[in-house]
Amino acid sequence: MKLHFNTTSPFVRKVRIFALETGLDKNIEEIPTAVSPLKANPELAKANPLGKLPTLLLDNGTALFDSPVICEYLDSLHEGRKLFPPAGAARWSALRLQALGDGILDVGGLCRVEVAMRPQELRWKDWIAGHEEKWHSALDLLEREAATLAGEPTIGSIAVGCALGWLDFRFGDDNWRSSRPQLARWYEQFSARASMQATVPKA
Ligand SMILES: N[C@@H](CCC(=O)N[C@@H](CS)C(=O)NCC(=O)O)C(=O)O
Predict the structure, then answer these.
(1) Which distant-in-sequence residues (6+ apart) come within 8 Å of 39 by Cβ?
(2) How far apart are CA 73 and CA 76, in angstroms?
(3) Which of the 8 DSSP states describes residue 39?
(4) Pocket of ligand 1, beta carbon within 6 A
(5) What's the pLDDT tens digit per position in 60-71?
(6) Cα-flanking dihedrals φ and ψ of residue 36, to 5°?
């Protein structure tokens, strides 16, 4: 398998952590791939018309995207403990956490376009404030439910870990830890995992 990847995308990081945690990293060749929302990468677009990372190329020619689909596919390839709990409350809890982690990245990404890409004179302050409020509310929910993150990693805790790592990377002055001690404590432990350390974002 080949993974179109870069070292800054938190969605790619989810997949790389998932592969490391399940021991599948040795089966994946990583292909450094440049992306921009302003201009499609023609090579990547052949596999994924949305032009997004991560995109996983299977040996049979199929291209899989996006990160939830790729991670669930990887989970089907190993015989160890499943990181997508197979059924019941544990499954819904993990999927809900994944949606929260990915959702923080979605709203954070929309905000980053405004603050990092859009010309200064065109920036929309209300848009930035509205999206910041959403990711702060999501972090507040995670603080209240921090106990659900504990234990062996699942797709949920991996997604949340990637979201928090990305906030530190792109919005380092957000100071999300100050009012969320439980979440900060969990993240400190989680980010010490070898899979997290091996995938720290690099500009
Ligand atoms: N929901 C997707 C999001 C993927 C995504 O937005 N990737 C970004 C990098 S972080 C990207 O490829 N952006 C390039 C573009 O939008 O053209 C996933 O979970 O994989």
Answers:
(1) none
(2) 5
(3) B
(4) 9, 11, 35-37, 51-54, 66-67, 102
(5) 999 999 999 999
(6) -150, 135
